[in-house]
Amino acid sequence: MEEKSKADQQALDAKAKGHDEAKKVSDEAYGRAYKAYKEGKKQANIVYKEAKKMAVDRQAKKEAGKAYKKAIEQAKKLRDAIIAEAAVVFRCSYDKADADYLETQIKSRVAIKDADETYEEANKQADIVYKEAKKRAVDKQAKKEANEAYKKAIEQAKQVRDEATRKLR
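Below the sequence we write its predicted structure tokens.
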């Protein structure tokens, strides 16, 4: 299994945290929605019972029943509106966590690509300088020094690239 880089792991952790927070907020909103519905229904039941007691004829009882049904429908609508809003907030939060993760991944890949391109360019420049130094070298010692300078330049370019990408790979 491929080991994740520190930056990759941090991005994944942030994504998971964003998803968890979105779920927590959503769950709380659903809980509040159902609590509001239950409370609305409870109040409607109380009012309905009292209205039935006070009703003197069949028509008044019928009107109390209609008012009760309407109150229950209003409680359901309130519950559904809260749930719908919670779903939108959840989706936006969830999508933002995903987008942040993707953005981090893209930035990491771009940084790695830039570091690799810089390394390749440094290698090309080192090759050019090395070839020129070898041409101009008049003795064995000068050629040896040019060779050492070339190796150092390549190693330094590699170190710079590795440092730039260490946390990103």
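DSSP finds three helices and no strands in the chain.
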